[in-house]
């Protein structure tokens, strides 16, 4: 079932390829950006350049088991929510996503504005607070083209904090998030230096050097990178992440399968 990444009291995170990871937090099972379709060419809903998936997910959605919530950074791109992922949402009791995305998805989707929070009861008697965080999927002013995107911070009084970046290319926003929530225990960073013909090839997500810088800004004890493989528009992968975190003196914080 992917790579479970936990050290001491850290929160288990299992990564399945692309942006999809399972976070087990206080008895709750939370899935990020579900994308399970087979390799092939995929068009963005509403048009725009197509994307090429190069590798299958490491798990079949039928084998995930019950989920308590999906943390969906955005619904408009097939590498973050594909056909299989949309089918999975029908069986999930809560989908937290952007305000516009919740309007498009309907069902159990709930939209959160940046810094808005929702509290979820934990089976062990505690409470999980999910706070939406801002994200910028490209250069400054990209939103009319790339769409609305959101990240998440998971906090509880008795458990380590987790930051899920979503597709974000802005270190200024990471600095703002760190100012409110830092240091975080675990940062699930969408990396890969994604580039397409949009914005003349400008970064749509963090590159590896920026991911290492984000880790330092957040004071993260552990960094679990996602969304750096399985798609052709990622221009950096595992090797670049290792090199960048080594250069930054943070390789011990990087957790790769």
TrEMBL record:
The regions listed as transmembrane in this protein's record are: none
Q: Which Pfam families does this one have?
A: Lactamase_B_2 (PF12706)
Query: In what residue span(s) does the Metallo-beta-lactamase domain sit?
Result: 29-228
Q: What's in the keyword line of the UniProt record? A: Hydrolase
* Xref: InterPro entries: Metallo-B-lactamas, RibonucZ/Hydroxyglut_hydro, UPF0173_UPF0282_UlaG_hydrolase
Q: Does the keyword Hydrolase apply?
A: yes
* Coiled-coil portions: none
* SUPFAM superfamilies listed in its UniProt record: Metallo-hydrolase/oxidoreductase
Tell me the protein's name.
Answer: MBL fold metallo-hydrolase
Q: What's the source species' lineage?
A: Bacteria, Bacillati, Actinomycetota, Actinomycetes, Kitasatosporales
């Amino acid at each position: 079932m992917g790579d479970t990444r936990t050290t001491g009291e850290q929160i288990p995170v299992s990564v399945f390829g692309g942006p999809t990871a399972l976070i087990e937090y206080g008895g709750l099972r939370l899935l990020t950006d579900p994308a399970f379709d087979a390799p092939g060419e995929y068009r963005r809903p509403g048009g725009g350049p197509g994307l090429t998936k190069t590798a299958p997910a490491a798990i079949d959605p039928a084998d995930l088991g019950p989920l308590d919530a999906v943390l969906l950074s955005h619904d408009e791109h097939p590498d973050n929510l594909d056909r299989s992922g949309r089918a999975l949402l029908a069986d999930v009791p809560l989908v937290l996503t952007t305000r516009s995305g919740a309007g498009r998805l309907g069902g159990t989707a709930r939209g959160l504005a940046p810094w808005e929070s929702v509290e979820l009861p934990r089976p062990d008697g505690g409470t999980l607070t999910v706070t939406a965080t801002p994200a910028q999927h490209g250069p400054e002013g990209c939103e009319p083209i790339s769409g609305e995107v959101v990240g998440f911070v998971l906090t509880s009084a008795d458990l380590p904090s987790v930051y899920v970046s979503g597709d974000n290319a802005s270190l200024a926003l990471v600095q703002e998030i760190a100012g409110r929530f830092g240091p975080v225990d675990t940062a699930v960073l969408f990396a890969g230096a994604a580039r397409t013909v949009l914005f003349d090839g400008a970064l749509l997500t963090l590159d590896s050097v920026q991911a290492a810088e984000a880790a330092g800004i957040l004071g993260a004890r552990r960094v679990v990178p996602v969304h750096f493989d399985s798609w052709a528009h990622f221009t950096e992968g595992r090797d670049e992440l290792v090199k960048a975190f080594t250069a930054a003196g943070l390789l011990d914080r990087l957790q790769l399968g």
